[in-house]
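Researcher: Structure prediction, please.
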Amino acid sequence: MRLALLFALCLAIVHGQEESCRSGDEDPYLLFGTKTAYTFSNKGIPVSRAHDVPGCQPLAIWMMNRHGSHNPEADEFAGLQKLVMFKNNVIINYRNGNFRNTNLRMCMSDVNLLERWEWNPRLNISYAGDLTSDGYISTQHLAQAWKYRFPGILTDNVHDYLFKYVNDERSSTTFRAFTEGLFSAQADNIDISKESDEKLLRPYKFCPSWSTDVEENADTLTQLNIFESKQEYKEMINNISRRLGFNYDIEHETLHSMYDMCRYNKAWDVTQISPWCAAFTKDDLKRLEYAEDLMTYYKYGYGSPKNQEIGCTGVKDMMDFFRTHVDKETPQQPRAVIHFTEAQMLLLTLQALGARRDLAPLTGDNYHTAVAQSRKWSTSAMTPFNANLAAVLYKCTPNSNFQINDQYQVLFLENERPLYLEECRVGLCSWSFVKNRFGLIADNCNLKFCNGADKVKGISFLGIVLALLLELPTLLN
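Model: Predicted structure follows.
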């Protein structure tokens, strides 16, 4: 087979035709939406001293974490396993020279990689969604990085912690990996305060109103459908099909299975080349990334008003925790509240905070605009594997820092970097701002709208409050 493939490709080269080679690309595109490896999302966290606030000492930390890389979900297995037969058909195409436009074909290195690819028999549906070994280790490393950065509050005293996680195998395993990173070998032998709080960490699972109006509403995907109906998107599918040697367009489901396999492979082993990534050009990958951004923007972001309301539970938990420390004169325990949840909850919490908000909505028509190309709402940056959102409460000495006029400050960090928020300085916000902006959201967070209660002309009071808060900077200008 290899000789036949080599002969076919050499014959094409002799005839002066070009080929595209992905495996040798020294600068591949590695941003894959919610299946992006943490290291690719941040491109290596630089040594940053953002957490060193002159004249201030960290008092408490609130954190929300997403799990590390995992096995495919149960509903993904069937499509991914079909790639075995699909791969064989691609190899047959190359052996037979089935190309209408050979300028699009893969190079020999890419074909050889694909030919060697096999479905891993250890990927059993019984372990669907479970954390991978890489996901476990990266979670341990992340915990160690946070402890190194904040040794005063992430101590060896278990009474300084309260952990909250959702009730599934992946989150409980993430909790175990994180605590092992914090406490090393002691983790199995100490009594750590923990609780499962589904309504806090997955409120959308208990909100029929949100499910009906957003998650299950076909209109939520309108902009995604517009984008995928564009001629350039159809041409992308056509080109990918030709690159694989087919004289017809492959099915949409097959396209996404290849994309998922590509990004899973890169998340499971960041050092290896995924043969399925060779099916896509950089422009293809950017379009597929934008498609996921469109979906999440309307399902969990600013595209649907109800998202602002349901995302309030994380903000309320943070504010309740910080108020305990600010209102009391003596040090309080726990000093660290650490959540383990899903990408959806991180996205909902970020938009409830007013973060990652673009000047114009993302739509299916504005992919080529400056707003879309430099968009803030990017799932690759916001929710890669091991994504995290942290807020650190500081207590400051009066007159020790002339740029700070509030005794308490809160530093917001997204994936270990300062999170931009209006009216804050490189992620550092005064307690007065935090109390006024987010305290109001917390005080009106009750999710009564989930069952159709407490409506004001069809819009809940909290929705009005959030909308006004988010628009306030624009109105003042």
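Model: The chain has a mean pLDDT of 88.
Researcher: Thanks, that helps.
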